[in-house]
Each structure stands twice: as structure tokens, then as C-alpha cells.
From TrEMBL:
Keyword annotations from UniProtKB, A to Z: Signal
Top-level taxon of the source organism: Bacteria
Signal peptide (UniProt feature, chain positions): 1-21
PANTHER family for the chain: PERIPLASMIC SUBSTRATE BINDING PROTEIN FAMILY 3, SOLUTE-BINDING PROTEIN FAMILY 3_N-TERMINAL DOMAIN-CONTAINING PROTEIN
Taxonomic source organism: Massilia aerilata
Protein name, per record: Substrate-binding periplasmic protein
Any matching Pfam family: SBP_bac_3
Ranges for domain Solute-binding protein family 3/N-terminal: 33-242
């Protein structure tokens, strides 16, 4: 009889624990990114752009509640390191960062390009040719860390949009930019014909980087959702949604 009672109590305990686990709601993920049009930007109160639309669609397909917030890059990145419910995008996956996050992606790619004033007519055949120049970077981002680690003379800015201004004012010789192929970013900023690419020094893929505490089950669902977007062409449609972003309308 005692054995039967103990078994019954264990069964009831297991059932209660299982019910409690099932009732436990999934975390609402806090997704952070930076202002970097056309990848992420505010439209009214909504964060939109190539990266933001991609990540939002991933969350919708994976049935994950979420909030997206636009922050300065360092705050966005630090939040994903420190908050257990947070993922940051679009994040370059480097060996130094590999163990810090759970990675979903890639969700996009870009070229790292050294930009210069057109009137200086600089010619670079390799990254080493840039060692004699002062390079403007975005403080704390992957390009900044990459060049610092290799001993280049960098001049970091708290906002990447300051670098083209610094370039035009001759405060730096080069600007280490991250640009999607075919992008009209420079033209949109009003520097068409004034700032030109002089060297592509890396091609990178970017990811959604999640805090290590985000459950594997959630990141797994994100990966499945992303694969479905690749298969049905959604990723390309999102990419082309912004082809004409910033291009003045014809009159």
C-alpha cells in the first residue's frame, strides 16, 4: 500500500511539474539594433529596413513575441551581452565574438570598404597600403576592432555618419565603411562624386546574435523560419523592397 501511495504521489508531482512547465510563458525577446539606413531606421515609431524586416519576419514565422528597439550600437550590443532576453542585429560573426552569443543567420552580407575623397585620387592595392593613412571608424564595431587588432591608425567616431563629414574636412584620410553591394548609400548621403571606394578589404556576413540564456528551442525555431524565408524568396523580396530607398522621385 505504501508503495502504491508513493508511486501515486510521484506521478502527481510529475504531472504538476509538467503542467507548470507548459503554463510557463515563453520570454518576450528584446531585439536591439542601430540606426543604419536602409538596414534599420525609424519610420514613425516603427523600426524598419532590410535587417529589421528580415528579423521581424523570422519572429513572426517562429511565433516568438518580441520588441525591436533602435539604440546606439554599443548600447545595442551590450544589451545582448548582459540581458538574458536579448538579441542584437545585424552583428558580424568574428572569432572573438563566437562564444559570446547564440547565432542565427546569416541574415545579410556586406563589403567592408575604404572610402576616400575623390579629389585625392588615392590608389590602394591592398590593406597594407593604408597603413600610412588615418582611418575613420565606428567606435566599438567589428571594423574598428579589426583594424585596431592589426595596428592601423584609427580615429573612432561615436556615430558612423560623422565619418564622411570628417573625411570631407580632411580630419581623416580614409573611412572604413560597411556597404551592401549595389547600395546607393553614398549618393543618398549627398556625397555622390565626392567620396569614392578605393579598396574592398573584407566581405562579411551578419547575424542575429542572441544572449547565451536565450533557449535553444527558440533559436532553433528562428533558424527554421530563416530557412523557409530563403526557400520561398522572402529574403530577396525584403532586400529589393529598399532598392529605391533615398532615391529622389522623378518630377
Amino acid at each position: 500500500m505504501n508503495t502504491i501511495i508513493v508511486a501515486a504521489m510521484l506521478a502527481l508531482g510529475c504531472a504538476a511539474a509538467q503542467a507548470q512547465a507548459q503554463a510557463q510563458p515563453e520570454p518576450r525577446l528584446y531585439l536591439t539594433t542601430e540606426a543604419a539606413a536602409p538596414h534599420s531606421m525609424l519610420e514613425g515609431k516603427r523600426v524598419v529596413g532590410i535587417g529589421a524586416d528580415t528579423v521581424r519576419e523570422i519572429m513572426v514565422r517562429a511565433h516568438i513575441a518580441h520588441t525591436i528597439e533602435l539604440l546606439p550600437w554599443k548600447r545595442a550590443y551590450t544589451a545582448a551581452l548582459e540581458r538574458q532576453d536579448t538579441c542584437v542585429f545585424s552583428t558580424t560573426r568574428t572569432p572573438e565574438r563566437e562564444a559570446l552569443f547564440k547565432w542565427v543567420g546569416p541574415i545579410g552580407e556586406a563589403d567592408w570598404v575604404l572610402m576616400a575623397r575623390a579629389d585625392r585620387k588615392l590608389r590602394l592595392n591592398s590593406l597594407d597600403d593604408a597603413r600610412r593613412y588615418r582611418i575613420g571608424t565606428y567606435n566599438g564595431d567589428a571594423r574598428d576592432l579589426y583594424l585596431r587588432a592589426r595596428g592601423f591608425d584609427v580615429d573612432p567616431a561615436p556615430n558612423d555618419l560623422l565619418n564622411p563629414r570628417k573625411l570631407m574636412a580632411n580630419r581623416i584620410d580614409l573611412w572604413a565603411a560597411s556597404i551592401r553591394r549595389g547600395s546607393a548609400t553614398i549618393d543618398r548621403m549627398g556625397y555622390a562624386g565626392k567620396i569614392v571606394p578605393v579598396l574592398v578589404f573584407n566581405n562579411i556576413r551578419v547575424y542575429l546574435a542572441c544572449n547565451q540564456a536565450v533557449p535553444d528551442e527558440l533559436t532553433g525555431r528562428m533558424g527554421v523560419a530563416l530557412e523557409s524565408m530563403e526557400r520561398d524568396g522572402s529574403l530577396q523580396r525584403i532586400l529589393h523592397r529598399y532598392d529605391d530607398y533615398g532615391v529622389p522621385a522623378k518630377r
